[in-house]
């Protein structure tokens, strides 16, 4: 069979082998501790579920407008104005099938063969593959642990060529948990304006912050940066709604219209009654978000304390999301070998940094219960003491 060549350019995720193996081991009855989850271990807030059930009972079961329910687009625009000081109207917003599809749709709308897209590494593993699927060229800029894995304006400038169309910014970051300070965002915004390129700001973890860290959207820095910014966000991480598949993009009307055209021929509208749950998530109590962040923070502190006392391991202090990105360079193992051996010998699942463009690191998610975290860390300690 001859498949389209675009498929061959995109390797299957290297995380698949590890997570498939962890699942198989669990199915065999083995006691596997998993730090691999990319989703909150909490349930969706009750009032969100109630709103979706009510919408279902009221017959919100038909096709809706491609760009999303008007009420949800309005609620998102208000949220962006109030939380992020971004002056968008409902017409600047498109509701998409998860934050993942808002990014993919945007890249399809903006990128074509010959275009370069700057992606700081470590990166969320789908960014380069989305660019390749659109026929564009990902330009990976490696960042430094000593700088908290954050790209500097100078690095951004050095990577820019006449072909550069887009810069992908993700703060708080998956996989590193790093958060750009407002000053760092301002400096990057000035550079984006100077270089006159687009920036997509993936803000899916904006509410998951620790140690007093604050989130500044790059679009809020100046009218000039606003004009070059597209926001990608969603409900999955903040509201424990990963399975609901609701994300959104916000940006200049011309881009949102183009995304609407692509969406009209690909996914159509996001599940109608699920969108009513999203409205409740935005407009209802934020108490559960606060509680979830508090629980994450306790686990984060515990993990940092443990990792800090282990030989051969180190990591910068993450101030956002729910991951620690641990350097394993001193073990002498590649990230894939480290992960396979750890899983086989100690039944602990972590994700190899190779998946995120950093082969001397592993990603550990603490979106799991404290007991498994403590048990898993004990096993990791035993493992690193023997390698
Ligand atoms: C989880 C995640 C997303 C989007 O997830 P959806 O489930 O599609 O909303 C986007 N970016 C990053 C960095 C993520 O970790």
TrEMBL record:
GO molecular function terms listed in the Swiss-Prot or TrEMBL record: transaminase activity
Aminotransferase class I/classII large domain ranges (all copies): 32-380
SUPFAM superfamilies assigned to the protein according to its UniProt record, in alphabetical order: PLP-dependent transferases (SSF53383)
Keyword Transferase recorded: yes
Alphabetized InterPro entries for the sequence: Aminotransferase_I/II_large (IPR004839), AspAT/PAT-like (IPR050596), NHTrfase_class1_PyrdxlP-BS (IPR004838), PyrdxlP-dep_Trfase (IPR015424), PyrdxlP-dep_Trfase_major (IPR015421), PyrdxlP-dep_Trfase_small (IPR015422)
Family the entry assigns: Belongs to the class-I pyridoxal-phosphate-dependent aminotransferase family.
Protein name listed in UniProt: Aminotransferase
């Amino acid at each position: 069979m001859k498949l389209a060549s675009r498929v061959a350019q995109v390797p299957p995720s290297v995380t698949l082998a590890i997570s498939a193996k962890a699942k198989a081991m669990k199915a065999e009855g083995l006691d596997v501790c998993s730090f691999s989850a990319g989703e909150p271990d909490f349930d969706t807030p009750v009032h969100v579920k109630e709103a979706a059930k009510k919408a279902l009972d009221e017959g919100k079961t038909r096709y809706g407008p491609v760009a999303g329910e008007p009420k949800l687009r309005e609620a998102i625009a208000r949220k962006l104005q109030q939380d992020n000081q971004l002056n968008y109207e409902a017409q600047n917003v498109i509701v998409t099938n998860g934050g993942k599809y808002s990014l993919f749709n945007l890249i399809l709308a903006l990128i074509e063969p010959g275009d370069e897209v700057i992606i700081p590494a470590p990166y969320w593993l789908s960014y380069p593959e989305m660019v390749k699927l659109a026929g564009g060229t990902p330009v990976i800029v490696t960042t430094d642990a000593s700088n908290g894995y954050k790209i500097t304006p100078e690095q951004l400038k050095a990577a820019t060529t006449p072909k550069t169309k887009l810069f992908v910014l993700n703060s708080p970051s998956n996989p590193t948990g790093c958060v750009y300070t407002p000053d760092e965002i301002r400096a990057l915004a000035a550079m984006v304006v100077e270089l006159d390129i687009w920036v997509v700001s993936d803000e899916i973890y904006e509410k998951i912050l620790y140690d007093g860290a604050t989130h500044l959207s790059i679009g809020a820095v100046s009218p000039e940066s606003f004009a070059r910014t597209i926001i990608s966000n969603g409900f999955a991480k903040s509201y424990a709604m990963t399975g609901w598949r609701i994300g959104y993009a916000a940006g200049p009307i011309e881009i949102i219209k183009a995304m609407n055209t692509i969406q009209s021929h690909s996914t159509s509208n996001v599940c109608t009654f699920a969108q009513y749950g999203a409205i409740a998530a935005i407009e209802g109590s934020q108490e559960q978000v606060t509680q979830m962040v508090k629980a994450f923070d306790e686990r984060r502190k515990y993990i940092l304390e443990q990792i800090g006392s282990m030989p051969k391991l180190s990591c910068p202090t993450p101030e956002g999301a729910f991951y620690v990105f641990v350097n394993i360079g001193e073990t002498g193992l590649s990230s894939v070998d480290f992960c396979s051996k750890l899983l086989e010998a100690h039944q602990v699942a972590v994700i190899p940094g190779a998946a995120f463009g950093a082969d001397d690191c592993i990603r550990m998610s603490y979106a799991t219960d404290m007991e498994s975290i403590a048990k898993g860390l004990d096993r990791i300690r035993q493992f690193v003491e023997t390698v």
